[in-house]
Fold each of these.
Amino acid sequence: MSEKIGFIGLGIMGHGMAHNLLKKGHDLTVWNRTESKVDEFVAAGAKKAQTCKEVAENCDIIMICVSDSPDVKEVVYGEVGVLAGLTEGKLVIDHSTISPHTTLELAKSVNEKGAFWLDAPISGGNEGAANGTLSIMIGGEKEQFNRALPYLEAMGKGITLVGDQGAGQLVKLVNQILVVVTGLAVSEAMVFAQAGGLDLEKTLKAVEGGAAASWMLSARGPQMIERDWRPGFTIDLQQKDLRLVLEAADQLGVPLIATSMVFNMYRTLQQQGLGGEGNHALVKSLENMSKITLGEDHK
Ligand code: NAP
């Protein structure tokens, strides 16, 4: 049976995800805090809700993709939030990257209404969201995972049930350690190549198919070379994820040497007012230290 889907949060990621649900012909209701972002979805066949409560009242499955833990809390617990419209049997799927601890709190509140919760954070950048090729890492019950799968398949390719509620968010933090440390490696390699007088495009082409291959290198390396700092993922949100990683690592008593270094490098960029740039602008932190600028001899 086809279920009615609601989508809350039409930002960089939600934009592509909601469009892909529509493209697959799903019955979609949307809500966004900045109302004007809803218009293009209504033009493409979606229904518009006035509040998150209305999304929950009118839909069977409610998907959320907003910025941080307090934002998901606002959307769920607010006076006209999801919880106010939720009834037994409905399913809430949170695609935002938030604290595993907050996730358990939210899941409990939703479960107390007789409804279900999956934490389902995503990876793959704005490109993955637009192309329907996201990785989706899910925490929750197998039965609800199977229920959600046909809809998640409209938005992603690698869709994995990784454990109970909260496990999806913890795996996402694993993902973020890999993303930022790889980002640091790409940044360091590019600055080194620049200092060596190499052609950066040829260098990238020569190494991206070998043992050094990575999504970060192939998707964000060219943007670094072109000094295109438009965000697929902003430094501010990347920094939010690293805060979540370091908080969890502190609770677990695990040293994360490289990740904490990147956290502080991003902090220097935020202090320069660059929090709205893409996370690949990490290279600027190394440029500042080394006084070597990518592409300077191409200008
Ligand atoms: P974004 O472009 O900044 O969009 C954020 C969305 O959240 C917007 O729709 C915004 O509404 C909404 N929002 C924020 N605070 C809110 C609040 N208090 N109440 C209601 N709505 C609120 O961010 P994004 O890049 O799409 O990221 C969304 C989530 O996906 C984040 O958790 C991020 O960490 C995660 N993520 C992002 C990427 C990526 O590459 N971009 C990849 C994987 C995961 P307005 O339109 O009104 O501002």
Amino acid sequence: MLNIVLFGPPGAGKGTQSNLLIDKYNLVHLSTGDILRSEITEGTKLGLQAKAIMDRGDLVSDDIVIGMISSKLDNNHNAKGFIFDGFPRTSAQAKALDLLLEKKGTSISAMLSLKVEDSELIKRLLERGKNSGREDDKNENIIANRIKEYNNKTAPLKKFYANQKKLSEINGHGSIKNISHNLNTVIDSL
Ligand code: ADP
């Protein structure tokens, strides 16, 4: 199986690049942000709990997102592989993911980390906020909180995957096509 963690701060382009990768490599896209937003749209209890947290730009609890990923893995047992987008975001999530995959006799193939300057992230997110309908993209203070959460809790995961010799960093500036080419080159060399 090909199991990729697509990593990077909010606004790095993970969603855009995931869509290109799932087509090229025939993978299942698991975005915890998308799954949470669909829970909100459906008005589930989980969605109601998550909405206030997401609108502030804080992280939803590990138990909730690990449970979501676990059931998605179970529901896609014929998949050729997965792209994890926006997950794991904490070390508890990364450890849980390793265990979940181990139980399925597989593991993470690589973490591809998109590197983008903060000023560019803020610009992209505010632009997206104009028509995405996402509350967390509309306000610069909330965006700053999301970047802070990323730096404090999520960025340290690079070390977790570097220790497993699985980390590749990719420049997230430039054209979508160019970034996609660079991601493909790393995957093809695995
Ligand atoms: P972005 O990468 O642009 O911040 P996402 O759609 O990945 O957007 O996430 C939006 C929000 O959903 C996060 O700010 C957080 O509140 C919540 N969320 C998504 N994934 C996770 C996760 N793995 N752990 C905790 N919270 C999460």
